[in-house]
Amino acid sequence: MNKFKIRKLERTDAKEFQRLRLFALQNNSTSFGSSFEEEVKKSLEQFEAFIEPKSERVFWGAFENDRLIGMVGLGREDGVKTEHKGFIRSMFVDPSARKLGVASELLKTAINFSEAQMKLEQLTLAVNSTNIEAINLYKKFRFIEYGVEPNALKIEGRYFAEMLMYRLNVP
């Protein structure tokens, strides 16, 4: 049985979210479009607003007791022609909690919500093209590669490519 619990993040989770996000950005900078230097300047109120559930965006957290050990975000594209699509973002699991099924449970929760609640027909995501473990996880959940964006991120003069993936939500 899992020792962790998955639930939607609320404004009251902002301090834990901020802690884990800053840790992720500091230790896995090539996995995120944002930088530690940008995010560390944000106030707790900005993190509260960022994770507050909205009709077009929601974040989930995996908690071990009161400690946030994993997170994932789901958003809806805006615009009449693209509102059938959503995207997975900000997926991260604390290294101490990896290999316990946390990432799978977070992703499954986001996918199920995208289908049942948001009625999304397609999900997309971008993942560092060298992050084989994450790519394999996404493939397990029927995400398919549709391209690679070279030089997607530039960090300290080095470029990193991102694999672009999609998943059709089929009833």
Which fold does the CATH topology refer to? Aminopeptidase
CATH class category? Alpha Beta
CATH architecture: 3-Layer(aba) Sandwich
Distance between the termini: 29 Å
Number of helices, counting only DSSP H or I runs of 4 residues or more: 5
Count of folded domains: 1
Walk across the major sheet and give the strand order: 1-2-3-4-5-7-6
- Helix coverage percent: 25-40%
Largest sheet: 7 strands, mixed
- CATH superfamily heading: Gcn5-related N-acetyltransferase (GNAT)
Instruction: Please count the beta strands (DSSP E, at least 2 residues each).
Output: 7
User: Mean pLDDT score, rounded?
Assistant: 95
Strand percentage lies at: 35-45%
SS-based class: alpha+beta
Unreliable spans: none
- The sequence of SSEs as H and E is EHHHEEEHEHEE
Radius of gyration: 16 Å
User: What general outline do the C-alpha atoms trace?
Assistant: globular
